[in-house]
Design goal:
Layout: H1 13-74, H2 76-85, H3 93-102, H4 108-116, H5 120-132, H6 140-151
Helix pairs in contact: 1-2, 3-5
């Protein structure tokens, strides 16, 4: 006699019913496990799809930034307009000034050209741009060296 798999004739009717219930529960549990596996696979597929879409959006944004920089370096006013239209920059004076201050990928001469325009908006951006610079706690030599760097933008000596 095999103790793990007894012959059905060796079980009482109560034990046979209990065995049937156990088999039924086992079948239900295996079905539930399969459903969970399928749901997990779906979630992973959605995550992969989301990551792929996010990478695509990031690549598109980087492409737009590159195009905007090129436009800015050729015509600063049109470049700023492009950045704003593509929501890469807000029309806020402070945002534009900080963007120019960082100058990532922007030609310094083009920045100077934009800041040198006499349009009221450009003058406000110029003031905000100057405010981005920290001259506090600099001695005269350090401030002049900073001034020399600013001359690359068309300002100063």
């Amino acid at each position: 006699m095999d103790l793990c798999h007894p012959e059905p004739t060796e079980l009482s009717s109560g034990e046979t019913e209990e065995l049937q219930r156990i088999k039924w529960h086992r079948k239900q549990l295996l079905e539930d496990i399969q459903k969970l596996k399928d749901e997990i696979a779906d979630v992973f597929a959605q995550i992969d799809c989301f990551e792929s879409a996010e990478e695509s959006r990031m690549a598109q944004k980087e492409k737009e930034l590159c195009t905007g920089r090129k436009k800015f370096n050729m015509d600063p006013a049109k470049g700023i307009q492009y950045f704003i239209e593509h929501k890469l920059l807000t029309p806020d004076i402070q945002d534009i000034a900080r963007f120019l201050y960082k100058g990532e990928g922007l030609n310094k001469t083009a920045i100077g050209t934009y800041l040198g325009e006499r349009d009221p908006v450009n003058l406000q951006v110029l003031q905000a741009f100057v405010d981005c610079h920290e001259f506090a706690n600099l001695n005269l030599v350090q401030a002049l060296r900073f001034q020399e760097g600013a001359s690359d933008l068309g300002f100063g000596g």
